């Protein structure tokens, strides 16, 4: 008996929904709810686009929205976002210097009773959503792009990037807007998952990384 291969639904990617004529982030945000670039739009409550200064010197890119972000439609408002905000303040980065977004704009989760458990986006989800990220970074044009965690790092710098190896120092790459500085660090949710006896050290390391980012703005 032979088994027919299971065909996965086609994921066309977001390109056809990204308005190339958009001249600001607000225009992108207004267009994003119509995106059907992958299947994640259907179970999610809503698209979660970005927040912060649309002309910021620093763009922070995370993985995807979480449960609270999905419900409220704003990135980094859950526990990880609160930790990130505290770390930014301690590092000397003012809120008006920062733009925050995610590599994937819809919450991927596994239902478990009444709870929705975070599920890491697949490479196909990251690829499908990348046109949004590329266009928003082109419009914001930050001096430094901070990649929070492995998903964001691989989305923009490729699969060879490793947090343990590459975090903590500037990485220069050519982009359509010239040479950009990228900076890899851990995602704040990883700090929250760190065992309690090592969590203070993990948080301090994140703050130290963000202090390096702040110092890059003065050079």
Characterize the structure shown.
This protein has helices spanning 25-31, 67-72, 79-91, 123-140, 150-157, 163-166, 188-193, 196-216; strands spanning 50-52, 58-62, 98-102, 109-112, 115-118, 144-148, 170-175, 178-185. It has 219 residues and is α/β, with parallel strands linked by helices. It has a single domain, classed as Uracil-DNA Glycosylase, subunit E (3-Layer(aba) Sandwich), CATH 3.40.470.10. It has a 6-stranded mixed sheet with strand order 1-3-2-6-8-7, with helices on both faces. A two-stranded antiparallel ribbon has the order 4-5. α3 (79-91) packs across α8 (196-216). The longest helix has 21 residues, at 196-216. It is globular, with a radius of gyration of 17 Å. Mean pLDDT is 93; it is low at 1-9.
What is this structure's SSE topology?
Blueprint (H helix, E strand, L loop, with lengths): L24 H7 L18 E3 L5 E5 L4 H6 L6 H13 L6 E5 L6 E4 L2 E4 L4 H18 L3 E5 L1 H8 L5 H4 L3 E6 L2 E8 L2 H6 L2 H21 L3
Parallel strand pairs: 2-3, 2-6, 6-8
Antiparallel strand pairs: 1-3, 4-5, 7-8
Helix pairs in contact: 3-8
Strand content: 15-25%
Structural class: alpha/beta
Unreliable sequence segments: 1-9
Q: What's the number of extended β-strand segments?
A: 8
- Average pLDDT works out at 93
**N- and C-termini, Cα separation:** 67 Å
Q: Which strand order does the major sheet show? A: 1-3-2-6-8-7
The topology string of helices and strands comes to HEEHHEEEHEHHEEHH
Radius of gyration: 17 Å
| Sheet having the most strands | 6 strands, mixed
How many distinct domains?
Answer: 1
Quick tags:
8 helices; single chain; 219 residues; two-stranded antiparallel ribbon; Uracil-DNA Glycosylase, subunit E; alpha/beta
């Amino acid at each position: 008996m032979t088994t027919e291969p299971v065909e996965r639904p086609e994921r066309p990617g977001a390109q056809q929904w990204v308005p190339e004529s958009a001249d600001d982030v607000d225009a992108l945000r207004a267009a994003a709810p119509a995106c059907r670039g992958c299947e994640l739009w259907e179970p999610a409550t809503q698209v979660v686009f970005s927040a912060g200064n649309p002309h910021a010197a620093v763009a922070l890119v995370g993985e995807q929205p979480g449960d609270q972000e999905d419900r409220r439609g704003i990135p980094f408002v859950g526990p990880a976002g609160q930790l990130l905000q505290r770390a930014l303040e301690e590092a000397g980065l003012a809120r008006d210097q920062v733009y925050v977004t995610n590599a994937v704009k819809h919450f991927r989760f596994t239902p478990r009773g009444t709870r929705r458990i975070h599920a890491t986006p697949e490479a196909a989800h990251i690829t499908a959503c990348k046109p949004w990220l590329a266009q928003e970074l082109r419009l914001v044009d930050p001096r430094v792009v901070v990649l929070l965690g492995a998903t964001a790092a691989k989305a923009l710098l490729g699969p060879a990037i490793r947090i343990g190896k590459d975090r903590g120092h500037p990485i220069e790459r050519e982009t359509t807007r010239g040479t950009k500085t990228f900076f890899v660090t851990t995602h704040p949710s990883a700090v929250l998952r760190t065992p309690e006896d090592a969590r203070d050290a993990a948080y301090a390391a994140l703050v130290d990384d963000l202090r390096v980012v702040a110092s890059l703005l003065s050079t």
